[in-house]
Fold:
Amino acid sequence: MTRRSAGTRLRAKARWWPLAAGLALTLTWSFPAGAENPADTGLAAALDRVLADDRLSGAAAGVVVGDAETGRVLYERRPGDRLMPASNAKLATSAAAMELLGPGYRFRTDVLTDGRRRGPVLHGDLYLRGTGDPTMLAEDYDRLAAEVAASGIRRVTGRLVADDTRFDDRRLGRAWAADDESAYYSAQISPLTVAPDTDYDAGTVRVRAVPGENPGDRPEVTLTPPNDYVTVDVRGTTVAEGGPDTLSIEREHGGNTIVVDGDIPVGADPTVSWTSVWEPTGYAAAVFADALADHGVRVSGGTLLGRAAPRGAKEVAEHRSMPLRELLLPFMKLSNNNHAEVLTKAIGHKTSGRGTWSAGLSAVTGYLESVGLDTAALRQVDGSGLSRMNLMPAGQLARLLASVRDEPWFGQWYDSLPVACERDRMVGGTLRSRMCGTPAAGNVRAKTGSLTGASSLSGYVTGADGREMFFSVVLNNHLASSVKDVEDAVAVTLASHGGREGDGGNGVERAAPRSAPPGTPPAEPECSWAKPRSC
Structure:
């Protein structure tokens, strides 16, 4: 585990003391000491105008901006208010994971046995053991099966046993919404799971429905990966070209029947859904069992879930995930909830031997305290921010952004943040269609957050005068469907800061994002809330 020395931590805390003092002593809006600087006064006025947006009337807004080099607070509005951070909670989880697990941390998935070999026959059980890898694809299970076959095993007299005991059996987070059960962003958490593609939405199956050739035909449905673990109940109908497209895809509560219902017109684009499965351990075991059969390995005794491989079991095959520093890209760029929760439980297992939310979150809290956050002022109940019980003040998020700059892994973590108006999904991520045509484009690196009535944006930006700033914007209790452009206006205002003459010498004005250039993908909700086709 990579950790800084005690002396380094003390120097870092001393360096950021101005920030800590500024955030701790002001709980309601007040401009910090040093506001006599005309440019900072102009910045405050410009941000006040942004936050006077009518859509925030009656809402709650916590905003903090600071100088990244000195830690001096440049602007703050209600920095101590406890607000739902949505996916800005991932800032805490990802930073703690980099520190406590380490940038080189890899998940392992292996196949073991304690049986006896007699020629091609294995007398005993075959164990598939997982440690939480959210990047396991069907092809990875296929490679494991190929290794088993290459070892000479052709028949297993016992069972295929899925060992998911690295974590506890709590599959869903605290206070997650029941009506999100089949949504991919609310997938169940297990040490053994499958992702359908390289977005790595673990614990989901990709369901694609296309219209039939003629009105009255049933839609044609395919699954990725192909499997018999879920059952598809096609109730929908193809209707005449130009008719309404009302096709829906949803898993029924408590099982693995996926219902495809509604109408889809002839010639319409496919309807695609990443749908969570019920009990991901069984899903992984089913995909692996199919792969074994494809490679000529027959298991006579069926499948058993949830039993640990015995000590001394011999390894037959092994798969290791990409290192955490690489996993950060799909995790943070696409705001993957499942990754956040798996990492939380992995942190718990590494630090205390218990793969539970409580153990993991306790360790995350300990890390946050070590870098100067006041953890008594916040509440974190999951790793992703999906729960509406999470509460984090903008001031604490800002303090985290300031503090992690001293960490040896900061560059890798910084690179994982979405970048405004960068069209490559693994660069721009959830910001790839925002702030285009402004000084913030290609400049702002920040984590987005979205829940109904809660929106957030926290990260880094360089002003026109070359000064790097950290900022946190957390907006709650708004009735408008979106306030993303208010967040964007804050970021664009910061990106414009210090580089323009005029405006009374303040060098800043209230900025509003301009229209995106032709060809830019349309604005899309955050991937952790509603996965559009282009996400």
Q: What stands out?
A: The CA atoms of residues 43 and 240 lie 57 Å apart. Confidence is low (pLDDT under 50) at residues 1-39, 500-511, 513-529. The first strand starts at residue 60 and ends at 67.
